[in-house]
Amino acid sequence: MRKLxxxxxxxxxxxxxxxxxxxxxxxxxxxxxxxAPPNNTSPALTPTVQETDPPVLEALPTASPPPPVIVPLxxxxxxxxxxxxxxxxxxxxxxxxxFPDYQYGDxxxxxxxxxxxxxxxxxxxxxxxxxxxxxxxxxKTADIYAGKSINVINICSSDIISDESxxxxxxxxxxxxxxxxKVYIMLGxxxxxxxxxxxxxxxxxxxxxxxxxxxxxxxxxxxxxxVSQKADSDDSxxxxxxxxxxxxxxxxxxxxxxxxxxxxxxxxxxENGYLPEDASFDGIHLxxxxxxxxxxxxxxxxxLACGVRD
Length: 310
Fold this sequence. Notes:
Rossmann fold; 5-stranded parallel β-sheet; two-stranded antiparallel ribbon
């Protein structure tokens, strides 16, 4: 009997307890697995999305681009050189100083100096004196076409200027390589043996050719630079009196043709009326210092037409 009680106490009771615990656990698991998930979303807070089709964009009308406006070159170029218009005066310096009394053929008056960019649309034509100017004056913005023994006649025929292909052409042909607003000409020292009327007639023909090639350029005729006293006394032709005669013809040509006359003759005269002896090794061709002085003179003697040229 005692043994039976011990079996009930230590074996049967724990087994019944474990079985009861198993039954309760199974019931609890069944209740959780069958329950519906909670609904935490309030209908009032749920946004309502209305589906709509995207708008149909109509294609924009296509327009053909307007045709390009073609402005003739002849309508553009005068604007490069005739920059100002005023009813009160016809001429002014490049620095803006008006010249109310200036006339074509008069010596260009002195004014404020311009810088080298003024010559960026300029070309210089001439003989060996201009060739020296090209070598020694320091100007890098201009084109300079010049050569030994060039005169008003052979400037159109002597092939001394090399093009990009290595071919040689005349100075007048090289003049047509680009468009210029200013043309500076220095000729006459090699023509002092000509009769003055022949010289100026040939010079006029040259001017007409320059205008034909560069119809919108301002043309500056530079006076023949004087020679030294020694050179003057050594030659009956190469004299300052003859140079002065030829220069008067050049000034008259400038007046007749509507050109500018730059008095580079007076610019180089010393107190005795000659080119200084220290200006040249031969009394004719200028040393570097005087080539630079030549450029400085041109910088302080500029003139432009205001409005429409005659």
